């Protein structure tokens, strides 16, 4: 069976060690995690975990079923129709062409967010694929450090 | 009512109807043991190793169907209990294990006897808790018992820091649980059940494939009824022995690696598998791509994750076996024609005549299969049989005439050597009117032999029949078949004096080398009502057959082995 990429949203009770339960399940059963983000859902006792994973159909089905079995898991959502965004921050030397960097970030829903005496920090927020393109494009400006935020997703 | 944490633990155990707790005290759990000393709601049995405590609670749960409870201290007390938790987890046995933990202020400091119990036990419990606040304790205890016994059962660990066991709080024990994230579905989808019934009616070669879930669901009567009404033949997994009852003409036997010929051929030729609480384990299926190639599959399981995990399923039904089989029977009533399966039954009968489950007896040396059949003849329906893991376990599963569910107790999933003796203690405590016999090997029995002391002290008359071939027999068998007889570290010629060992601990010991001796000794052992070792010298090189080599196709059985 062919490997597919899937974004899985998991709504969990906001309690200690729940993230460990989720990641331990992936590690223990040999599933991949390409990216994982987690944040509390406002005005509730729940948190939203977004996991990007790869596997064949049977594995993806097992992942959702095994996640559902975890006691603090309230809901697991897995389908193709998700709106995905990812954020990235990149550090450049202040000697690079700042207006070109600003224009590039602008094309990816971002901009320059901090300028110091030696370095400048830029950000972008877009679909994961486009973030890849953005990072490729930044190469000519000799990025010093790149930090990706991981994918967040919401059902359409 | 105001109580301290330790009183809460004792009170919750009593209110859950638990009559006996197996455990071992230590520093972090001492406050609870102090309350145990003062209370009389339940009895405590002091095993001589924490692993045995959990296995004993497990055996108690398997024999009675109730939740078993074990109690251990922090650190090594807990880590010793892990094998017990994992054993229960793999076989879906309802347990609540209470462990002590270092005080909250010391957690994370590498304190004396500190270990991350919830971290370690996460993959081998259904759920676990670290109690951080006395106000959560009553709710957590209630949830622990509920989780252990509901849905797909399993062990639950409650790890309680020492200061929490001393702290006072309001004990408001809830009558029911409110867990928005935990809702097992038991009823089974009616439309799917209807479709499954249609498939059964239209099938030509259907086969009922019975797993341990049928035992857990207490559904064996209904499954027998289903088979009886439809006249569909059935196979049992290792965990389901006894469900159909020995001598039932519809029962082909056990299937899988050491299943009999007819069962494995039935699985290979069936056109419709009716899987009831089985999970298509690799020891059952053999090579997956060759498994049941002509079959559609009805898979009934309370755990949706079991469905479609290894094989594609045509009729998935998530639900409790008891409820679903009841509905299936309703659907099939007066619509299914048992005659339709007559030629299929005939084929299987011929397979059974061709290669019945058998062995070659001997006059010179005791054969393990003879010993097991003999136990069956002498105590049969009355006994509860536990086992350890290895050749003796397979011979017992193959040759003992199991007559009812919960009569056969063994570690099927994890395959834990050392399980049988403590599990037998638990079973005997749970069912004192039954004769309880642990069929074991000379390797396995040493892995929890300290329980001789427990059994002697509490006068729990468990009979251990040691099928002694002076080998780690199952590994030796694989070495014979697949490793050119390089018997690496499997020769157990150097042995304790089992008879003297049992006697040194306050039990009785017997050495047996002949059939006559065995009969006499077993009957005497039952009569004397004392823990005992019956050390039976058996044929050293006897193999478990038939055998499907690991990874081989189910229909390619090794029926005999010639040197």
List keywords for this structure.
heterodimer; A: 156 residues; alpha+beta; Alpha-Beta Plaits; four-stranded antiparallel beta sheet; B: 563 residues; alpha/beta; Rossmann fold; 3 domains; six-stranded parallel beta sheet; 21 helices; globular
Could you explain the architecture of this structure?
The complex is a heterodimer of chains A (156) and B (563). Chain A has helices at residues 18-29, 57-69, 98-107, 128-138, and strands spanning 4-13, 35-40, 46-55, 73-78, 82-93, 111-115, 119-126, 145-155. Chain A is of the alpha+beta class and 156 residues long. Chain A has two domains: 4-80, ACT domain (Alpha-Beta Plaits, 2-Layer Sandwich); 83-155, ACT-like. Chain A, domain 2 (Alpha-Beta Plaits, 2-Layer Sandwich), CATH 3.30.70. The radius of gyration of chain A is 18 Å and the shape is elongated. The model of chain A has no long low-confidence stretch (mean pLDDT 94). Chain B folds into three domains: 2-170, Thiamin diphosphate (ThDP)-binding fold, Pyr/PP domains (Rossmann fold, 3-Layer(aba) Sandwich); 190-354, Rossmann fold (3-Layer(aba) Sandwich); 368-537, Rossmann fold (3-Layer(aba) Sandwich). In chain B, helix 1 (5-15) runs parallel beside helix 6 and helix 3 packs parallel to helix 4 (76-90). The longest helix of chain B has 15 residues, at 50-64. Chain B is globular and about 70 Å long. The model of chain B has no long low-confidence stretch (mean pLDDT 97). Chain A binds chain B through residues 12-13, 16-17, 20-21, 24, 28, 58, 61-62, 65-66, 68-69, 71-74, and chain B through 118-119, 122-123, 126-127, 130, 132, 147, 179-182, 303-305, 308-309.
